[in-house]
Task: structure prediction
Amino acid sequence: MPVAVLENISLRERIVPISVAQYHRMNELGVISAKTELIEGVILEKMSKSPLHVYLIHLLHGFFVQHLSADYLVRKADPLTLSHSEPEPDISIVKGQLVDFKTTHPVYAELVIEVAVSSLEIDRVKTNIYALANIPEYWIVIPTQQQVEVYSRPQHGKYQMVQIYKNAEKIETIASLVFDLSAIFSD
Result:
């Protein structure tokens, strides 16, 4: 249920964001639900996942696990600790092994993917977060349009390149992999 005070623009502008450390402490104390993520200093409740959303995440995860070397860890809905945010992207690909993240979350990823079944607006807001963190490539998979928005070349907190791939086109990505969209958009 939305808080009425947030509807007032002058009050909304006076909200004090929390830090990643404060967010972690609130989580440790059980003050906030585990189904949240920190976006630009604001705690947001994560949306529930539709069957299509889960299906696409599993297909993407499986592809990258199968095709990337052991130098990469393919994570599903796990946190990335960035300067003012701790998003939990649907897929993040980081260099390293699982044991490297035993005590801290990754602070960087080679590729981040969000599947936007009902979250397109917030996923587009995240472009700024990922660009500020210099994430080289960010995908927004939009199944209703059978397309993927690929953001790349982060510079000064903005992605300099945005490409739209549709239907059965192919995306060349991390480690020179080629991802065929027909793998997720075929009927």
The mean pLDDT is 92. The chain has five helices and ten strands.
